[in-house]
Design a protein that fits this description.
There is one protein chain. By secondary structure, the protein is α/β, with parallel strands linked by helices. It has helices at about 1-10, 55, 80-95, 115-125, 135-145, 185-200, 205-215, 250-275, 275-285, 300-305, 320-330, 335-345, and strands at about 15, 20-25, 30-35, 40, 50, 65-70, 105-110, 130-135, 155-160, 165-170, 175-180, 200-205, 230-235, 240-245, 285-290, 310-315. The protein has a five-stranded mixed β-sheet, with helices on both faces. It has a five-stranded mixed β-sheet with strand order 11-10-9-15-16, with helices on both faces. A three-stranded antiparallel β-sheet has the order 5-4-6. The longest helix has 26 residues, at about 250-275. The protein is flat. The protein binds adenosine-5'-diphosphate and magnesium ion (MG). Magnesium ion (MG) binds near residues 16, 137, 161, 291 and 321.
């Protein structure tokens, strides 16, 4: 009754604090905000001047006096002050100041330390939250992907974000195995930058590299035919603008292959280390891919070939974690304290 009243008086919020993107879910409304996890600040005063999309536009092209930073870049908090500024900005942007401060559920990379978790919680409290619960990203992604997390049978989720890839096995409402590497979509972009320089002496920025990845990036041969595109950059010797024509096959084989292999190895390693009963369950259940990295063409195929298991891409992989925090908010009032403690990360 009391919590229903609170629900009426406040907007509970779910946040996916990702390395590349932050998404905010407001209870009963769904995802209301989706912005890059970037903060821009003045170099000398350290004063924040932009957050989110506006700050991302400054990445790589900031005037000398401003720096654009990604507070969560490698799945750890690079700088407490700027992550707090980011969290505060996003909470304040969606919290329409109802009578009671919101309850906030935040999905965090599973690799963050106890000190970092404390910092995230304190930041959210300072930004106006009445209570903060942290969900591990794989758990949030599993809930968001609609996996039967309360089931005794195991399910495997692989969440490929910007800076990290996390793999977890979930059963009986808990995480029974998890591992993460600091490799994700960002490393694919960096591999493209390095390849263009190595093969063509063409210097490109990370944003151009990301566009190449979106347009023609792939992890296995494209059944529908290989793709190609023109890329503009600067010639590393002449120093002048130059255009080069590239194909999806060369990007896959010469640039992306090694990073893709690291993701495949992480999954194989998890299968090798998990409990035998869980391995057996996965033969029926397969593996679910979430996170923006799941959108690389043919990644499901490579993982399936390497493991012999069925691999399914979650519906709307970029929104899974945020939807999971929202679904968790809906469940909160019907769960016991023990059930909540099992799901959240302490
Ligand atoms: P995080 O949870 O770390 O914030 P996201 O799940 O938001 O990360 O995914 C961001 C990553 O996904 C970025 O590296 C981005 O380039 C990549 N990405 C997004 N869409 C696509 C796509 N269509 N194809 C390939 N990669 C994509
Ligand atoms: Mg994520």
């Amino acid at each position: 009754m009391i919590s229903n009243l609170f629900g009426f008086l406040s907007n509970d919020i779910g946040i996916d604090l990702g390395t590349a993107n932050t998404l905010v879910f407001v209870k009963d409304r769904g995802i209301v905000l989706r912005e890059p996890s970037v903060v821009a600040r003045y170099k000398t005063s350290k004063k924040v001047c932009a957050v989110g999309s506006e700050a991302k536009r400054m990445l790589g092209r900031t005037p000398g006096t401003i720096e654009a930073l990604r507070p969560m870049k490698d799945g750890v908090i690079a700088d407490f002050e700027i992550s707090e500024a980011m969290l505060r900005y996003f909470i304040e942007k969606v919290d329409k100041r109802k009578l009671v401060p919101p309850r906030v559920v935040i999905a965090v990379p599973s690799g963050i330390t106890a000190v970092e978790k404390r910092a995230v919680k304190d930041s959210a409290i300072r930004a106006g939250a009445r209570e903060v619960l942290l969900l591990g990203e794989p758990m949030a992604a599993s809930i968001g992907a609609g996996l039967p997390i309360h089931d005794e049978y195991a399910n495997m989720i692989v969440d490929i974000g910007g800076g990290t890839t996390e793999v977890a096995i979930i059963s009986i409402s808990g995480v029974s195995f998890q591992r993460s590497i600091r490799v994700g979509g960002d490393e694919l972009d960096e591999a493209i930058v390095a390849y263009m320089k190595r093969a063509y002496g063409l210097l490109i920025g990370e944003r151009t590299a990301e566009e190449i990845k979106f347009s023609i990036g792939s992890a296995s041969p494209l059944d529908s035919g290989e793709l190609s595109m023109d890329v503009r950059g600067r010639d590393s010797t002449a120093g002048l603008p130059k255009t080069i024509h590239i194909t999806s096959q060369e990007i896959r084989e010469e640039a992306l292959k090694e990073v893709v292999q690291q993701i495949v190895d992480l999954v194989k390693n998890a299968l090798d280390r998990c409990q035998p009963e869980h391995s057996a369950d996965l033969i029926d259940r397969g593996i679910v891919l979430a996170g923006g990295g799941a959108l690389i063409r043919g990644l499901d195929q490579v993982i399936s070939d390497a493991t012999g298991l069925t691999v399914i891409q979650a519906e709307d992989p970029l929104s899974c974690v945020a939807n999971g925090t929202g679904e968790f908010l809906n469940l909160l009032d019907s769960l016991s304290r023990e059930q909540i403690d099992r799901l959240v990360t302490q």
